[in-house]
Amino acid sequence: MSDIGLPGARIRSFIERVEHLDTEIQELNEQKKEVFAEAKGEGFDVKILKEILKLRKEDQDKRDERDSLLDAYMRALDSAPPAEIGKAA
């Protein structure tokens, strides 16, 4: 195959940088697992901790709007008469 003039050293630099970042990400994910394991060992519910992390990433206004809608839907559901078995809405 002939050399088509691609800057091989520059390509290698990009590839090696990405590989290095992948290694760092893997190490950070392992550290994250260790933190969750530590929290679980102290009796905390990891599922709830993950949910809190997810909520903290959300925009406050969007979260407030979703919570308001969820509350309104739940109140509507609670005030509706029970459906008869076998009959769908």
Give your account of this protein's structure.
This protein has 89 residues and is mainly alpha-helical. It has one domain. The protein is built from three helices and no strands. The N and C termini lie far apart (68 Å).
Total of helices: 3
- The average pLDDT score comes to 92
Q: Helix and strand succession?
A: HHH
Sheet-strand content, in percent, reads under 5%
Largest β sheet strand count, sense and barrel closure = none
* Percent helix: over 70%
Q: What labels describe this entry?
A:
89 residues, mainly alpha, elongated, 3 helices
Give the arrangement of secondary structure elements.
Layout: H1 8-41, H2 46-57, H3 60-79
Summarize the structure.
By secondary structure, the protein is mostly helical. The chain has helices at 8-41, 46-57, 60-79.
